[in-house]
Write a structure and sequence with these properties.
Blueprint lengths: L2 H11 L3 H17 L5 H13 L5 H32 L12 H21 L7 H10 L4 H26 L6 H43 L1
């Protein structure tokens, strides 16, 4: 484990019990809003603290799950607010000005069909969590249902992480390696899927253009 993480862990350990709960909940929140934050391994550390009877297992599960869903819904409302701006391409955010409205229409169709299932699974999709929450807002999925599914997914994921930290105790830092491997696998699968979509889109465009040229020539 990197030194800065060890320093954070040691700092958390020295806090009063109430402070530990609040810090872990805040980490779970920020991990959704600022993805580089290594929230998962610090939640695992919460499980270790529970195994030492320093904090309550189920209370830390609940608080980190609430923090996670609040972070998810923060990004959801960001997506909700910029959705119309993307459609009109009059957004204040330069990086969204090049977002094709055609892709937004397709994303809406996909999210309306699979959206709540993706929201439920979002905690298990390392590297795509913020994108999922933003797209849920852009496509304006039902906010109450979205929050419910996000909470259920966060609760299940946090039970696994905190349970792992609780079970292996002092060896909890070893889980970081497996989280990194898992995250790399998920990102690779997502990248492969995006490449597939890009190739398929380009192929269809080429076929459409070729067919149009044949009609014009005839």
């Amino acid at each position: 484990m990197e030194q800065h993480l060890l320093d954070i862990v040691e700092w958390i350990r020295l806090q009063p019990i109430l402070g530990i709960y609040l810090i872990l909940a805040l980490i779970a929140y920020l991990e959704n809003v600022v993805p580089p934050i290594p929230g998962d391994i610090l939640v695992v550390f919460g499980g270790y603290l529970a195994s030492e009877a320093i904090i309550s297992f189920w209370l830390v599960v609940v608080l980190t799950s609430v923090g996670s869903v609040l972070g998810f819904m923060t990004m959801y409302y960001f997506g909700y607010l910029v959705g119309d701006e993307i459609r009109t391409q009059r957004t204040r955010f330069w990086f969204l000005k090049y977002f094709d409205g055609e892709y937004l229409d397709k994303a809406e169709q996909w999210m309306y069909r699979w959206g709540q299932g993706v929201v439920l699974a979002n905690r298990f999709l390392a590297g795509a969590r913020s994108i999922i929450s933003i797209m849920a807002g852009v496509t304006r999925l039902n906010p109450r249902k979205t929050a419910t599914y996000a909470l259920a997914g966060a609760f299940a994921w946090n039970v696994i992480l905190i349970g792992a930290g609780w079970l292996i105790g002092d060896n909890w830092p070893a889980i970081e390696r497996y989280l990194n491997l898992y995250g790399g696998l998920i990102l690779s699968l997502i990248a492969a899927y995006l490449v597939f979509l890009g190739v398929r889109y380009a192929f269809r465009k080429w076929r459409s253009r070729d067919a149009k040229n044949n009609v014009d020539n005839n």
